[in-house]
């Protein structure tokens, strides 16, 4: 594994919430936020954008919340299965989060998705795609 692709150690991926990091899409050179999620002993990676409004982040800036092994969008409370990304409740019921390929190796999580490059841990500081502050966008 390439050290430049290392996101975080497995032990640092939280159980009650998600781990937020930033990637760069290689085809557009745009930075996008992503999350790591722990569920049933597995870690999965998803872009941090809802499928109700795909320009809106799932979280309020510190990683999406989890409830009963599902990722919760804080905007209009859509819920997504942590292992499949499928929306089970909310305005985008049946839609899937965009996945991001990761690999676990020697206790660390690596980004191994050829569509993205790892940028940094934490939010995308240059992002203008703000999380919704209103609930009237149904
Ligand atoms: S933006 Fe996520 S549920 Fe509306």
Commentary on this structure:
This protein is an all-beta fold and 138 residues long. The chain has a single domain, classed as Rieske [2Fe-2S] iron-sulphur domain (Rieske Iron-sulfur Protein). The protein is 0% helix and 38% strand. A hairpin with a 5-residue loop joins β7 and β8. The chain is globular and about 40 Å long. The relative contact order is 0.26. The site of FE2/S2 (inorganic) cluster (FES) has 11 residues, from loops. It holds the Pfam family Rieske. Keywords: 2Fe-2S, Iron, Iron-sulfur, Metal-binding.
- First-to-last CA distance: 43 Å
Please tell me the CATH architecture by its name: 3-layer Sandwich
List the domain count as a whole number. Answer: 1
Return the CATH topology: Rieske Iron-sulfur Protein
Q: Please identify the top-level CATH class.
A: Mainly Beta
Largest sheet: 4 strands, antiparallel
Helix content: under 10%
Strand order, largest beta sheet: 4-3-2-11
Instruction: Give the beta-strand count.
Output: 11
Helix and strand pattern: EEEEEEEEEEE
CATH fourth-tier homologous superfamily:
Rieske [2Fe-2S] iron-sulphur domain
Net shape? globular
Unreliable residue runs = 132-136
Beta-strand residue fraction? 35-45%
Protein name: Rieske (2Fe-2S) protein
InterPro entries: Rieske_2Fe-2S (IPR017941), Rieske_2Fe-2S_sf (IPR036922)
Organism: Halocatena marina
GO molecular function: 2 iron, 2 sulfur cluster binding; metal ion binding
